[in-house]
Specification:
- Two copies of one chain form a homodimer.
- Chain A is of the alpha/beta class.
- Chain A folds into two domains: about 240 residues, Aldehyde Dehydrogenase, Chain A, domain 1; about 140 residues, Aldehyde Dehydrogenase, Chain A, domain 2 (3-Layer(aba) Sandwich), CATH 3.40.309.
- Chain A contains 14 helices and 16 strands.
- In chain A, a hairpin with a 7-residue loop joins strand 14 and strand 15.
- The interface between A and B is large, with 71 and 71 residues.
């Protein structure tokens, strides 16, 4: 297996090297063809998905898991449409930046280049297969896909269609490579091939991500969890704070940019908390509060210390009254996860301090935490979210799949005089 | 030891969090004070250096190694001057980029922030101690320094002076933390503290760098070696190509951006090689050539296949005649190390192709490989060179020690309508 995987990765690296010189039209040609073949292979893909669904039911997957796994003709249309949308995105490769002329006349600049080979390790959702492949190819990278066992047959069928598309468009099918096994041993082997693979992006539960991060010799871009805070400053507008609270907690509680904790300044607690309690009650949200919170909200459950470190991903929110701006910042620094933190305030100075003091990957002023998303922030598409600061931080678009090389142009300049 | 190191790293992380909100003047104040104390502690530092020099001689270090280790009053002046030069550099933190307004009125931008805690693992040269500390602090990061055993006493004395400077300027001395042992076990423990340390930069020989890369759970920025190529295209100007060859090979053969291989297009070999042979002979450079090279240069030694993968770091160069541009690119892709590669050509189209086809961290057209250096490229200073594409690629200046967070400003926008 080890040698097989090294061979697969080596082929991907070779294909990537070729792709790096492709112009935008050639890359878009591949994507067009991939979208076409995805639609032309609907029958095979849906058949493969039926097998996965059947064994998923046998294994007793939850209805939510089964729904994620399910493919339909409509969902395949959506997947093909997503590939076509990537065609419309600007090509991140070849862009020059930081141009300058040095005193000796050398022109220096930086050019965006692909990273090379990107391995995506993911669970369930078969749509990740085509989304990730499209984003990697558009940014000039080859992709190695290692999906979960539940979607094995679906992923295989999707990748066969994509590779056929690449082939018909005169590309190297090794640009989209499938790891033909889902066992952990093979994943461990894959994570050692730093000779050919440049980046690993794990997408899935915390267990998977930790396993990848701890066992990889290849750089990993990861995020574990999102404990996102809303700090309601003493100078907040109550209406704005309520909007951010309800959208942040209830518009989609199961995602990582949902709110998990509200911190309320003591001076505004008497005004804000009763209104918040009412609004949250309407949405069936359970509140776990500190003693001061519960003085205003008698229905609230007492919060244990662990509550402030819990990503509920559910209709539950923890609440704490703080005595000062500084206490709020301190709390976020101690309990935050570098994902997204929000301040509601109408005080310009306080908002500027918050932006400076909080170094989470997305810092929001009077805006919902739910905007921490590649599409919403204008990145065009999202390949993942990083909560570690190296290379990429926050929602990752196409640019996060590139690097920059120095380009230097002269006319014979030397560092030392030549005699 | 493990707990001690974790405690040290935790203190550094806390100090870093505080430093992240310092403005430029406060950071420069620390640097001024560090430079002053370095000069005021000359006596102690030179005394400590004498101990290192004595035991270095006893251990039989080479004269070159001893020279690197040696500190003098003049060298300490230079180190203090280098800190003062960092004061003059623009502060990379707080810079906004990519500002845009979304259709819903949200303002989105990215703000540069420090990485947090940077561990520098290095050998010999005690000047790295103060250089690295200054660059890390200017970019808002705390630094953990782990120097080599040869310079242990010198490093300790330098760091004591720097910490005194920080303290006198009301900073937290934990901003500059010294690992008080040089054994490998402690280094292994250090490389596991991914909770507090954000980045590891190893500086030294290939053995040290590989050891760090293979044992670190923290992201590592590294470069192993520089096998830099000069490709003399058929449309090169002979004079320009000769200048690049002599500067690249002989101006400082022991450094990573020196040339190790020349590739010469067959159509120009008859003109170029005899002139190159003469110029290299004057500089006492040994040529290891392919058969075609040797047809022009009878003194050249036959090159073995291993020669094209060797970083000589000496007055030796390998030479190969190639039949085409494509063959040169293929050779560089197979034998290059993603450091620096140069084309000499006066053909605009060929130069543009080379810039596209070669994705080394520095790609040069008619400019010496020796310009692959932070100072020369206008970065102000250099903390290291990266030959892996993640996070930073090529010479790293202050900006490479920062990340970017998303900043979003609104007036109560929500992702979903609030009823």
């Amino acid at each position: 297996m080890q040698e097989d995987l090294v061979k697969l990765a080596g082929d991907a690296a070779k294909a990537a090297q070729q792709l790096a010189s492709f112009d935008t039209a050639m890359k878009n040609g591949l994507l067009f063809s991939m979208a076409d073949q995805l639609l032309l292979h609907k029958k095979e893909i849906l058949k493969a998905n039926k097998i996965d669904m059947r064994s998923g039911k046998e294994k007793g997957l939850s209805p939510a898991m089964l729904d994620r796994l399910l493919l339909t003709s409509g969902r395949l249309d959506t997947m093909a449409k997503a590939i076509r949308e990537v065609i419309e995105l600007p090509d991140p490769v070849g862009k020059m930046s930081g141009m300058r002329t040095r005193p000796n006349g050398l022109q220096v600049g930086m050019m965006s280049i692909p990273l090379g080979v990107i391995a995506i390790i993911y669970e369930a959702r078969p749509n990740v297969t085509s989304d990730a492949a499209a984003l990697c190819l558009k940014s000039g990278n080859a992709v190695i896909l290692r999906g979960g066992s539940e979607a094995f047959n679906s992923n295989l069928a999707i990748i066969e269609a994509l590779r056929k598309g690449i082939n018909l468009s005169n590309g190297d099918p090794a640009l989209v490579t499938f790891v033909p096994t889902t066992d952990r041993e093979a994943m461990l082997e894959l994570l050692k091939i730093d000779k050919y693979i440049d980046l690993v992006i794990p997408r899935g539960g915390e267990g998977l991500i930790r396993f990848v991060a701890e066992n990889s010799r290849i750089p990993v871009i990861k995020h574990y969890k999102g404990i996102c805070h809303l700090y309601v400053d003493k100078d907040a507008e109550i209406d704005v704070a309520l909007r951010l609270l309800i959208d942040g907690k209830t518009s989609r509680p199961g995602v990582c940019n949902a709110l998990e904790t509200m911190l309320v300044h003591r001076e505004i607690a008497g005004q804000f908390l009763p209104a918040a309690g009412e609004a949250l009650k309407k949405k069936n949200v359970e509140i776990r509060g500190c003693a001061e919170t519960r003085a205003f909200l008698h229905d609230a459950v007492p919060a244990s210390p662990a509550d402030y470190d819990t990503e509920y991903l559910d209709l539950i929110i923890s609440s704490k009254v703080v005595g000062s701006y500084e206490e709020a910042v301190e709390h976020i620094r101690n309990h935050g996860t570098d994902h997204t933190d929000v301040i509601a305030t109408n005080n310009l100075k306080t908002s500027r301090r918050f932006i400076r003091d909080i170094n989470s990957s997305s810092v929001m002023v009077n805006a919902s935490s739910r905007f921490a998303d590649g599409g919403e922030l204008g990145l065009g598409a999202e390949i993942g979210i990083s909560t570690s600061k190296l290379h990429a931080y926050g929602p990752m678009g196409l640019e996060a799949l590139t690097s920059k090389k120095f380009v230097v142009i002269g006319e014979g300049q030397t560092r030392h005089p030549i005699d």
